[in-house]
């Protein structure tokens, strides 16, 4: 893969002032800056958990294994996609139950991305991690993330999630921290990461939740710091994203219906971007559409109907109950029947209809889509052959 050249902050070598390190977006030759030149970002939400995003028993190839997800990542990279990442979850035996034992088996996204970093060359690799669970310390993650950023030549990122489900922290012997307080803690954690990535001398910080005493991290990240991402739909999450994130993974406040989402998203996305501009930053937003696409609208509707007809009812019911038990401010208007197919918004139709909806999402202020599919490998191949050329014709892709 060649030798990595570190693109350091111009203040490197001066006394550490406590200021955070620059975003990789500020370096014109960084992988993130290259990706951000696209009119509309394309990502793939990897199915590193059994059942993917759809608790349906309709036969398909979708598989949680590393080999399957490696093949998907290479396929996405060949198609020119910009980024991939997977979800992070902590769930007990049986998963969400049902015939599928939905999501019982899940690869860890941090380890998965680490493995992908040395077998890909262009695509951004984002690792989702619950930074508040268990024994994580900012010094650990600063070192691990800088190492992976170095290995990937600046393509590594952290999707920082705080956790909304009470049973997850209990698995670590912890109690759930109040919603807004989780973002306060996360802000301190990430600020320490940024200090460690940017400092030219040892760092000592006496924080409210973590301490650093003469701490230092090397090698430094390739372009200032790794890419920072978070998923949010609340005011506290918006405040955190505005201050720290390069990309924000947003949800539709109107549920999965695509037309309702398109109507609701301009104000939602506008509020987040305004908050970032108020602190002198620019932030890009991505959303998760589930794509059901076939050569004709009838074929797409028939495919969708077959997925719903094979719903794993117990798994759907348990999944909905799990979400209702948490305090997430996102996904609040999603109906139970939408969970069978999955995705934050759902786009169903022939290629021209899919493109029209993605264009409409772009017009709401959304900067990109993190795609999911029911049957990932063949559905992604069809998207690449039938939809991607139309996206280029529509001006969404270069």
TrEMBL record:
Keyword Oxidoreductase among UniProt keywords: yes
Pfam families: Bac_luciferase (PF00296)
Luciferase-like domain segment(s): 43-367
Chain segments carrying region Disordered: 1-20
Entry keywords, A to Z: Flavoprotein, FMN, Monooxygenase, Oxidoreductase
InterPro entries, per database record: Luciferase-like_dom, Luciferase-like_sf, SsuD_RutA_monooxygenase
Protein name as catalogued: LLM class flavin-dependent oxidoreductase
Species this protein is from: Methylobacterium oryzae
